[in-house]
Predict the 3D structure of the following.
Amino acid sequence: MPTPRDLLAALLPYLQVAAAYAQQIQPRIAAQPAKDAANFFGAALSDADLSIQTFVEVALLGRFPEVRFYGEEYEQSYNTKYFRAIALGPQDDYLITLDPIDGTQFYLDGHGNYQIILGILNADEFEAAIALTPATQTYVYALRGEGCWQGQFGQELAACDRLQIVDPKPTILLGWGMERLATTLRDHYTVLTVAEDYSKAIQIPNVNGMLTGELAGAVIRVGKFIDGAALAFLAQEAGCIVTTHAGAVPPPLHTCDNYERPGLLIAANPTVHQHLQRAAQIHGLT
């Protein structure tokens, strides 16, 4: 089995091609029939989601046919049956995950803060993750215990710079279903809620704003392996604090169901985390 770094290095060129494709077709993108989901963000589906997943699947089956792979659109993929498994395996039998377009609704509405996110998961924890932002031609990646790094398209992993989050804006993002925390947090922060503040005309930060300094904190209802949990792992490797709503260390991946961790608090520093945890307690999330 190749190492997580080997996997990232080998897949990076394909992911950059996928990113270029996503950016190129965005002005002409057509939405596919919406998926069943709890809200319009989860239901959004585009040609790019399906095409990028297929492209990455082809690359994986051609280069690493022995890996486990779970992509967001696995139910519609022609390739799912060719992978050895789609579930977490025993320790050191890695599962590769993919969100082909994280923020599909942002993407469909012409915003630039969508990403392509790929994770490498061990039985207990993420070993690596990479998130590419086509609009800025940049990417960030992390390897377990080795910090978070950022680079430009065309740069190899080894040429990237350490990502340091310095003086983030005093803004908190509340994911879908977390709106009730806003009244408590507005004493200290500008608060954005996805359910109430999303706009087709004006771009708001996504959870990836934790990595750009646009956000000092975020609260998400669940940490899906393919996106929220992967971004939380990147943020943690960049020095952020990541816990459950109750303030506990997120549980090992193999103890979780439905490819998701429980709700997460992501904070740039201890003070922000204290405020998020207090709000979670006041509003009954713990």
Remarks:
- The helical segments are 4-25, 40-43, 47-63, 104-108, 182-185, 194-197, 228-237, 270-282.
